[in-house]
Design a protein that fits this description.
It holds the Pfam family Aminotran_4. With 354 residues, the protein is an alpha+beta fold. The chain has seven helices and 20 strands. β18 and β19 form a beta hairpin. Bound molecules: pyridoxal-5'-phosphate (PLP) and 2-OXO-4-methylpentanoic acid. Pyridoxal-5'-phosphate binds next to α5.
């Protein structure tokens, strides 16, 4: 039966796949919930979104997404607490960043109500898909791409905004070792590195495959100009702890302004953990690993949450990080996930009830 919530029409799936899902053994982004949100841009205007059964999308072979890669996306999570209340984490930051990314890719910006009401309606319809198990959540993937066709290399006249969700466990299955990149670049000044553009990820796959063949899970990108500065990893921002100080690089044209990153900076400051936002050179990290002052390295992102890095490779040498219990990574991960899942007070106002 069709219903309407938040002015959004809902076409319910005839059957649910939920009983086929093993919620105790969830991988990341592997199974998809019963419904999706779809909103089309045509005639110079975003049309009212609809929620419908999760299904394939039919596209013209000349759709510009295939030829010119005009696409942007976001990554968010929904959490369910012990009382079955549903929470998002700083969703307006994702909305704003989606439009920042869209603007850079010449994609028309989306109205806030379409994003927020669409998301809330979708979560209401698929709330049974939000895992309750610690460490699991409903990963949310809003994305926009050029569905309008034409071989002329110019922006499309039609787009689709879609939100799909996937009940998910941890992004990394085991330990995370990273390779500090010396040759390839993820982004450059004036480019699209700060945008969550699909092409940024495609461009990383080949160098990351080479790193995986050598036993690493992620590449740590360095600046394209000199390869002397640590920028970010393929799916997360990077923090290092030198003695007691937590350090992360500044965001720029080339680096994604991660919501987890900025939350960790605020959280750490509020807990009197010394934090520095400054350029980090590869040579200081290598030197600190050699003299023992490099205590921790971790990645931060929605999918990755806070992922400790156990070692890194650079110029054919491997460096190990010390192993100890009371790390900043484990402390901050607990603090942030407790706020996200409504297990602790949220003095920052980050949590958003759906
Ligand atoms: N950097 C890159 C390249 C990413 O893909 C992500 C993931 O979204 C992040 C950083 C972390 O950003 P956020 O914390 O907003 O998820
Ligand atoms: C996220 O953390 O939400 C991301 O978008 C990273 C992605 C590569 C899984």
């Amino acid at each position: 039966m069709n219903t309407i919530i938040n002015n959004i029409a809902i076409e319910k799936a005839k059957t649910s796949k939920i009983n086929e899902v093993d919620f105790d053994n969830l991988k990341f982004g592997h199974v998809f919930s019963d419904h999706m949100l779809e909103c089309n841009y045509k005639g110079g205007k975003w049309q009212t979104p609809v929620v419908k059964p999760y299904q394939p999308i039919v596209l013209d072979p000349a759709a510009k997404i295939f030829h010119y890669g005009q696409s942007v996306f976001e990554g968010m999570k929904a959490y369910k607490d012990v009382d079955e209340k549903v929470w998002l984490f700083r969703p307006l930051e994702n909305f704003k960043r989606l439009n920042i990314s869209s603007k850079r890719l010449a994609i028309p910006e989306l109205p806030e109500s379409y994003f927020m009401d669409g998301l809330k309606t979708l979560l209401e319809v698929d709330k049974d898909w939000i895992p309750k198990k610690a460490g699991s959540s409903l990963y949310i993937r809003p994305f926009i791409f050029a569905s309008g066709n034409g071989f002329h290399a110019s922006p499309a006249d039609e787009y689709k905004f879609i939100i799909c969700t996937a009940p998910s466990g941890a992004y990394f299955a085991g330990e995370v070792r990273v390779l500090i990149e010396e040759k390839y670049s993820r982004s450059a000044n004036g480019g699209v590195g700060f945008a969550k553009a699909g092409g940024n990820y495609a461009g990383q796959f080949y160098p990351t495959q080479l790193a995986i063949e050598k036993g690493y899970q992620q590449v740590i990108w360095t600046d394209d100009n000199t390869h002397e500065y640590i920028e970010e990893a393929g799916a997360m921002n990077i923090f290092v702890r030198i003695n007691d100080t937590l350090v992360t690089g500044p965001t720029s044209d080339r680096i994604l302004d991660g919501i987890t990153r900025k939350s960790i900076i605020e959280l750490a400051k509020s807990e009197n953990i010394p934090v520095e936002v400054r350029k980090i050179t590869v040579s200081e990290v290598v030197e600190a690993a050699k003299n023992g002052s490099l205590k921790e390295m971790f990645g931060a992102g929605t999918a990755a949450v806070i992922s400790p890095i156990s070692g890194f490779g650079y110029k054919n040498e491997d460096y190990e990080l010390p192993k100890f219990d009371d790390t900043y990574a484990s402390y901050l991960k607990k603090r942030i996930t407790d706020i996200q899942t409504n297990k602790a007070a949220d003095p920052f106002g980050w949590r958003y009830e759906v």
